[in-house]
Amino acid sequence: MAVATVAARYAKSLLDLAQEKGLTETMHKDMLFFKRTVEQSRPLLLMLKNPIVRAEKKNAIIKAVFANRVDPVTMAFFQIIAKKNREPIMDAIADEFINQYDRLKGIERATIITTVPLTDALRKKFTEMVAKTAGAKTVELEEKIDSKLIGGYILRVGDQQIDGSIRSQLNDLRLQFLN
Fold first, then answer.
1. Residues 20-45: pLDDT tens digits?
2. 3-103 architecture in CATH?
3. What residues form DSSP beta bridges with 138?
4. Terminal-residue alpha carbon distance, the chain
5. Residue of 82, 106, 105 whose CA lies nearest to 93
C-alpha cells in the first residue's frame, strides 16, 4: 500500500481517538512537536527510516526523546506504530494528522512569496483572498522573501499556485518572442 494511504489511515485513527478522548488540541501540539523535532534532527529522521536499525532500538530512542514531552496517549500511539514496524512513515503520519486537523477546524495554510516584507494591508488582502477561494474559516499565511522575483508575488494554497511575479511575466514574454 502507498505510504500516503497508510499514513492517512493511521492519522485518521489518531484523530478519531483524540476526539473521543477530548485530546484533539493536545495531540495536535504533540504532532507539531514531533514534526519540528524530526525536521530539526536529520539523524533522528534517518534512524527512523533506516531498515537496518532494529525496531527495539527505534522504540527505545522514540521513548527517550518523546516520553516526557508528549501526552501519554500520543506516546502509546508512537509505541503502537513501532510495534507495527511503521517507524519509517511516522513523519508522513504526523503531516497527515496535521492536515486532517486543519480540515476539521477549517484552517487553510498558504504561502506567499514576495520580494519585500508584506504590509498589514497586503497581508489582510492575501488572507481574505485565500479565505474566499478556499472557503476556510481561518487562514495561516506563511511569508517568504525571494529577491529573484524582481517584483510581484507567488501565492501557494494547497496544490494551487498563483504566480503574479514579474519574473514569470518576463519568462512568458520571452517565450512569446521565441515562438
1. 999 999 999 999 999 999 999 999 99
2. Orthogonal Bundle (1.10)
3. 107
4. 45
5. 82
Task: Confirm if 62 and 45 have CB atoms less than 8 A apart.
Answer: no
At 39, is the secondary structure helix, strand, or coil? helix
d(CA 135, CA 110): 13
pLDDT at position 29: 95
Angle between helices 3-21 and 72-83 (to 10 degrees): 150
- Give the count of alpha carbons within 13 A of 133, CB side only: 16
Whole-prediction pTM: 0.78
Residue 48: closest CA among 6, 99, 90, 15: 90
> Residue 170 — pLDDT band, cuts 50, 70, 90?
confident
Q: Which residues pair with 143 in a beta bridge?
A: 112
By DSSP bridging, strand 107-114 and strand 138-145 are parallel
Asked if pLDDT for residue 75 goes beyond 90, the answer is yes
- Beta-bridged to residue 141, according to DSSP, are 110
Q: Where are the alpha helices (DSSP H) in 1-150?
A: 3-21, 24-40, 42-49, 55-66, 72-83, 90-105, 120-134
Q: Which three cell numbers, joined as nine digits, stand for 49?
A: 527510516
| Alpha carbon distance 115, 102 (integer Å) | 28
Residue 68 grid cell = 516526557
CATH 1.10.520.20 region(s) of the chain?
A: 3-103
